[in-house]
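FOLDING PROBLEM:
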Amino acid sequence: MPNSTPARGRPRPRLTLWRACVAAAVAALLAAFLTPAAAQAAPPRESEPVYSYAHAVRESVWVDTGLDGDGDGRTDRVAVDIVRPAEPARAGRKVPVIMDASPYYSCCGRGNESQVKTYDADGDIVGMPLFYDNYFVPRGYAVIGVDLAGTNRSDGCVDVGGRSDIRSAKAVIDWLGGRATAYTSRTGTRTVRATWSNGRTGMIGKSWDGTVANGVAATGVQGLRTIVPISAISSWYDYYFAQGAPLYDGGPDDLAGYVESDAARARCAAEHKRLADGSPRSGDWTPLWTERDYVKDAAKVRASVFVVQGMQDLNVRTKHFGQWWDALAAQGVERKLWLSQTGHVDPFDYRRGAWVDTLHRWFDHELLGYRNGIDREPMADIERHPDQWVTSATWPPAGTRATTLRPAPGTLPGVGTLGTRPATGTETFTDDPRLSETDWAAHIGETTPQKAGFVTAPLTRDLRLSGSSQVTVTATASTASAHLSAVLVDVGPDTIRDYSDADEGITTLKNRTCWGESTAGDSACYLETAAKTADVDYTVFSRGWADLGHYASLAEGVPLTPGKPYTMTLSLAATDHVIPKGHRLALIVAGTDRDLIDPPATRPTITVRLSGTAARLPLVGGAQAFARATSGATATPAPAPLKGLRAPGPADRVPGD
C-alpha cells in the first residue's frame, strides 16, 4: 500500500495480479453494503487546489550535512528554500514534500526559461523556479529547493555527484524526518524543526538534479518515497567516458568550477585538485568513479522510480537510464517510464498537459496514498512519432528477446549484409575524426574508406527494438591506439523531431499557458512549445563507443599491438524504436564519431574480423520476429547519399538544461 513503510532495505513491490483481484472483490462486496453516507466518505482520488498560494509560508533553513568539505573547521550547511501551504499547519495537519536539489539555482537557472531563485529583503524565497510550487502547494504539498553544497547560499564544495552532493539532499530528507539538524541562518545557533512535514518526500529534477535524486535513492534513506529523474545520470564515469573513450576534453573539476559560488571558488582549490587527480583522461576507472556509480547500489533503493528520458539525448545519453532501469528491475522496484523523441528536454516542454496530469497523479499516489489507479496503468509511454504516443504494459515488452545478428560481406567493399547466419571475411576502414555518424549513415550503400556498413533487405513487416543492445567487435589496429563506434540506423523516410537543433526537438513559442497560481514574484505562466521536426531518409537510433585499449578491463587501458586481434563488446544506448515495413536495419562500425567522442592519439586503420563480430539486439518477438520481418525480402542496393539531420554539434559539457 502507498502509505505503508516497507522493511528496511527492501523495495516496495508492484501489486501482483492476485492482490489486485482480491482488492477488487473486497471493494465490490463493501459497495453492496455501503450506505449513501458511507459512499460519500470514500477516500479522495485527486488532490485539489484548496489552499492559498498567495499566503503560503515562505522560509529558508540551513541543514547541517555533517561534512566539512571546504575544510574551514565547521560542518557544512546547505540552504533549503521552502514554500508550503499555511492552512494545514494551523489545523495541526502535516504535509508531504516535493524536493528539487540542484547546483543551478543561481549560476544557470532551471527550465526552458532559465529561472533562478529570487529572494526578498529578509532573504526568504520569493521566486522558486519551475511550476512545482505554483501547482502543488495549493494542493497540499510543500515544495523545497535545495542548493547543493558549494552553490548559491550553501557551504561546502561541489564534488560532482560524490558524497557531498548526495549528502546535501539526504541530510534534508533526514531533517524532514526528524533525524538531522537545521538552523534558521547559515552561521547562527538557533535550530528549527520541520514540524509541518509528515516525513514523506518525493524528489524530482532534470539532469544533474535528477542525478542527485538517483544517488539519494541509492542510499536507501528513510522517508524518500519516490523519485522522478528526468534525463539523469546513473554513473558519472559514463557521463565522461564510453568504455575508455573520452566523451569530453574536460572533467568533473571543470564542471565544479562552472556551478560553484564565489565563496566556494575561494576555498575549494583542494577539492578541484582531488577531482582532477581522480579522473585522469586515460579513461581508466578509478575509485572516484566507484563513489559516483549509483547503479551498483540499486539493491538499496526503497523509493519508487518514474524515469523520463529523451531517446536522442546526446548530453546525458540513454545508457544512463537503461542500466539504471535494468538494475532497478532486478530488485523489483516499482517503476514507470516516459521515452520521447527529443534530446535533453524536460517533458513540460514537449507534452505539457499530459505531463502535469501524470505527475500530479503520481505524487498523489506515492506521497498522499490516493488510490487513483496510476500504478495499474501501462508502465511505459513512448513517443513513436512527433506528438504521437503509444503505451507499453511493461518495459521492455513481454516477449522481448536478445537476438544475435551477424554481419556478412556484400558485393562492394564495406557494404555488407546483416542477418542471422555466421560469415567469414574482413572489412577495413581508416579512422577519420572529421566525420560523424551522419556522414557514415548518409553513405550506407556506398563504399567509403571511413566505415563498414551492414544492412538488411527492406523489411516485410515492422520490427521493434526495446531495451539495450550490445555489439561485439573483433578487430586489429595498425597503431597502438584505436577508438570504435557502433551505430544502429533505421534506413527509410520518416518525419522525426530535429534533435540536432540547438533546442533538441522543440520550438519555443510566444504565447504562455498557466499551471497553478501566481504571485507578483512567481508566475505560474510559461512559454508554450511545439515540436520541431525534419524529414529524413534515415534515423540513427542507438550508439555505442569504446577505446579498444580497454578491451580487457575498464580499470586500465593498454597500448595495442599493431596487427594483433582484440575482441571488445560495446554497450549501446537503450532505446525503443520501430523499424517500419519497407525500411532497413543497418549496423555501422567505424572509428571516431566526431563531436561525440574524442579521437585517439593516432589515426589507425582498423580491420574487422566478421566471424568474431555480432550485434545482440533486444527484439520484441526475438529471432522469430526478425525471421518474419526478413522473410521474402529482396536484397536491393540502398540508395545514396541519404538525407539526414545535421551532424551533432560539440557535445554539451554541462548536464543541465
Residues 46 and 195 are 25 Å apart (CA to CA). The chain has two domains: 53-335, 400-500+535-630.
